[in-house]
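Sorry to interrupt, but I need a hand with the structure work. Could you write out one complete protein record for me, on any chain you like? Could you add the entry underneath, on a fresh line?
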Amino acid sequence: MPRIFGHDLLAVIAAAVAIYIIGYLIYGLVFSAFWMEQYGYTADSFAGHEWKIFLGPVMPILTVLGLAALFETAGASGLKAHLRIGVIVWAGFSLSTLLYGFAYAITMTPGALALDAVHLLLGILAASAILVWRK
């Protein structure tokens, strides 16, 4: 099986799919009404933006490629090391970037910040754990 940054291709694909599924569950099923309320969205808000659905897989793929490269560069092995680095990535990059939006954009509510932060944390931790598989 081909390897990407020292990780099995199947694990890389599975990790990206896991992030996508977590996002779908959070935003599409479980908290969709809360998410729309927090951002002030209505069904009409999405008119003209339907094409963006095709970008959905891009973010998980980029996240997993970045994690895999970082794990390989750091020489991380084992679940504990992957999860530790995953938390650092989440806090240092994902959460900090979200906080810029919260601090400087008037449209991000505390609820939206919390939902987005939890989504990214769960996705990064799931991908970090999956990338240990078949390494």
